[in-house]
Each structure stands twice: as structure tokens, then as C-alpha cells.
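Hello,

Our lab assistant flagged a job as stuck in the queue for most of the afternoon. It eventually completed. Since we weren't sure the result was trustworthy after the delay, we are filing this so someone can double-check. Below is the sequence as submitted and the structure that was eventually returned. Let us know if re-running is recommended.
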Amino acid sequence: MSENMTLRFIFDDDYHALFKWTEYLIFAALLCVSMGIGVFYGFFNKKNQTSEEFLMAGRSMTVFPVTLSLMCSFVSAITLMGNPVEAYYYGFVYIYFSASLIPMTFALVYLYVPVFFQLQLTSAYEYLEKRFSKTTRRIMSVSAIIHLMIYMPLTTWGPSLALDQVAGVNRYISAAVIFIVCVIYSSIGGLKAVLWTDALQGIIMLGAMATIVIAGLIEIGGFDVLWSRLAETGRTNAAIFDIDPRTRHTFWTGLIGAYFSWLPLFAGTQAQIQRYLSVPTLRDARRCLFYNLFGVLAIVLMCILIGLLIFAKYYDCDPVSAVSPLGTTVVSASDQLLPFFVIEALGKIPILPGILLAGLTSGTLSSVSSSLNALPAIIIEDYVKPFRPGLSALKLGYLSKVISGVGGTLSFCLIFVIAAVGNILPFASLLHGTFIGPIVGLFSLGMFFPWTNNLGSTLALIPSVALTLFFGIGSILKNNAGELPDQRLPLRTDGCYVNETISRTYIVNAQYSFKQNDAWKDETYTPLTEVLSISYTWQPVVTLVSTVVFGLLFSFIINLFKKPPKVKAKYMTPIILTMWIRILGMKRLSNWVDFDDSDHDDDNHQSDNTASVRNSISGDSLYKGKEL
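-- returned structure --
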């Protein structure tokens, strides 16, 4: 075949006709049930009046709803639409991204959760005041609030935009409906309503993804066809151990880079911490997180498989690349591939487009409602209580509902700002790295290193955030300018076919785009482009590691001139504290750690960490007799 071929290709601008009344009925039923749960807990559950009950569900939730809520609130519509795109462009090597969930969960369960659970905090950032200072706490809580306010419209805008362009659902109307429903059931029903609606939405999300996988396999002809089409373009190759940090996906970016991508979302966000602290025991919290591991793994793996199925379906006709003489494409942005695939290839299956809509909406509802419940927890605990300590629990409960409602309304207004951002996936990565990565860095400094001090740790935020913004904004600008290496695996448009059911026909110039996987390395780039070409998976590593490294460095320098105050043992991770005792000895470590927990500022919720450490040294469980 010649390199430039003119083929007849027909574009469908009326796919939204496939959305019949049954699809909208499924969508409406999901919204109504979600609101119904909120109304039930808001008006018929009399215990839901206090702030403790509204924000933490009385710390009496069972494992099942909390597990599904952890899974569902983490997996936003951005995840559901973004992960298939990565697999579509870069192949099976993206599987390593999901594998990093395993070490991340073990680190979360044994390094971070014990400290949070022992202190029984409502706002996770209260830890920073106990360990460092009020100033550090306020800086990080403001950072968390900004993150929540931007993240809510961001996670809503992605699916709203895609559904508008491929299904005809107006983007602003769908975004407004999602916000209205979330504000109603979150502000009325509190955390219990959010957890149970998340459980429902989690089941719907899993069902939707599984249905798409099964229907997709049937559509392309089974696993044999899938594998052969992937193999033709090198998409089955997962043995990529390239140490070049510019390579987008390798074994190392998946195992290490992705680990630091997952960790801030579970260990640094109020929404997730609030969930695993809503159960009564540490053992329950650990069970929730281990069960959550299997749920998130299932969803991410299905997202990857769906991305590969989309490629197998359009292996000779990339919908994003094929351009008509009028400049029209089938799909104007890669994050619309999943809705397009379901509507164009699977739309003939009754109610399947409605199931997709319900799945994407569930991901968005869970993320927004989680944020709306986390927002009042931060504001009440970090700002209202310190300045108005005399407010009753009942008044704080009402105030929490008002903050949730007002916060949701203000956040929706930012939709019009997010609309001007463009590609939301790099922006989402930059958002998490800038506002959440440094928080986990400070948590790590406080829990792992007893000699870090307040000033040194706080100063570390400056170079950490500066580096994050440099790499994040720089890579976005370079990518928009088309100057970053194109590492996508081969794509074709030579086989674009005629869809006889469509009314409009265009002539498409289809070109081959086959290239070697590492051909981009032979090209010449400017030094700045070389630096900014670092894979996006390494950016969270830069953020978190730089916070820890600079925090240790600055603390060391400050400690040379001023002896730091001792750190209470209960603010340290028991396993890490035990390690330092074995390395340095109890006597030397006592220069930095106060093993006397005679202070009674929050002892009503704490166990004796000194006893835990000593039990661990003698071979007993760190929390023997403490979990039940």
C-alpha cells in the first residue's frame, strides 16, 4: 500500500440517538436511589445530628460498605476513562501500574494507618499540629481544601464532556445534575449516606466494567483475535526494563513510579483516611484496605483490558487519528475512546449504553460525594473548633451540613474554569502532585524520622512544590506544543471502513504510523525538553521524595544550632520506631523520642504506644490485645 491513501470513511454525528428512554431511566434510577439513601439518613436517622456522627458515622461502620466506598471513591470517572487510553496507546506493559497497588497497600496498612487509627483523628491534618505545629497544619489543610474544590469539578467535567460529544448529553446539564444530587445526599445524610451510596455505586461500576469486557470480547471474536492484533504492533511486550526516565511505561515506572502515585491518594487525602477511620477497630481498618486492594485491582485490570479491546476493535482504523478534509474526526480527544467504543461497537446491545452511563456516573458521584464529606471535616476540625471551641455537637453537625452544601455549590462554579483547561489528565496529575504529594511527605517525615523538626519540614515544602510545578507545568506546555517524544505504539488508519447506517460521508486521508518502540530516542531534543520529557509516573516520586530529602536536610542543619523538642512515641509508626530502637538503642533514641505518654491531651482515644514498641521488641504483636 502507498504511504498516503484516500479512503471512504463515514463519521456518525448522531450516535446519541442510541440513548433511548431505557438508558435515561437507568441514569435517573441511579440518581434517585442515591438521593433516597441521603434522605433516609438525613431525616430518619436521629443519630445523624452531631458532627461526629455526620463526619465519621459514629466510627461504627462495618467492613463491607467501607471497603466498597474506599474502592469507589478512589476510582473516579477520570480513572475509568484515562486508564483504557494508556493501555490503548502503550499496550500490555501498563499492567505493572496495577501491580504496584500490592506494596502500596502493605505500606499503607502497616506504616500509616496505625498512627492515624491510634490518634482517632477526625481531620487527618490534625496530626501535623501534634507532630509539628499549628502553622504546618493550617498550610496543609488549606492545600487539601484547594485540592478538593478543584478536584470535584475536574472529575465531573471529564465524563460530562465525553458524554456530550459522543452521546449528546449536554455537558453543563450533566455536571449540574451530578453536583445537585451529590450536594443533596452528602449534605443531608453525612458519611453514612456517602458510604452506602458508594457501596451501591461500586457494585454498579464493577458490573458495568465487567459487562463491557464480556461484550467487547464477543464483539472482536475472543482472546485469540485480541492477542494476535496486539502482537502485530508490539502491544503484548511487557518485558520492558528500560532505565531511561523518559520512557513512559516500564517495569520500573509501574512498580516504583505508580507506587508513589497511589500512595498520596490513600495516605494523604482526607476522604480516604476518613473512611478507614470510620470502622471501630484497627483490624477492621486493615481488612477494609486489603479487601479494597482486590476491588481496585479488579477495576484497574478491567480498564486495561478494555483499552486493549478498543485497540483490537479499531486496530486498522484509529478513531483519534483519522481526519477528514473538513478537519473532522470520529473522536476529538482520546479520553472519549471508551464512550465511543461502547456506543459505536456495542450500542446495538440493549441498555448497554445506559450501563456505561451509570458506571461513569457512579465514578463521578462517589468522588464528588467523598470530597463533599471530607470538606466539612477539614474546616470544622482545623478552623471552626479551634476558634469556636464552645459550639455544641448539635450545632457543629448543622454547620457541617451547611459547609457541605455551600462547598459543593462553589465548587460547581469552577466548572467554567475547568472547561478552559483542555486535556484534564495531565492537569489532574499536576493537581495531585502539587497539593497532596507534599502532605504525604510531611506525614512520612513525622512518622518515620524522630529528629525532623517543624521548621525544617515546613521549609522542605518550598523546593518540593517548586520542582512539582516545574515538571508538571513544563511537561504540559511542552506536550501542548508537540515537543515531547511521541512514544505511542503503532496506530493505523488504512483500514477505516464504511458504516452503512450513517448518513454523512467524508473522504479520509489514512496514513500508516508504524515505528519502532524506541525510535523516539534517535531524535534530537533541546536540553530543557530532555528534562521535561521525564515520564509522568516519576513526577509523584519527585514530589514525595524531595519533601522527605529536603525535610531531613533542613532539619539536620537546624538541629546543629537548636536542639529539637522530643517527639511523643505515639506520633511515630510503631514498626519504624522499633527499627530505630534496634539500630540506635533505646538510650540514644531517647534524645529525640519521648516514651512517656503521661500527657492526657487525647488519651481518651489512645493506647500505650510505649508498651506496643516494647512488645514488638520482645517478639509480641505490635497491637496485641489492642485491635478488638
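-- support follow-up --
The delay was a queue issue, not a problem with the job. The result is valid. Strands lie at 4-9, 506-511, 567-568, 593-594. The first strand starts at residue 4 and ends at 9.
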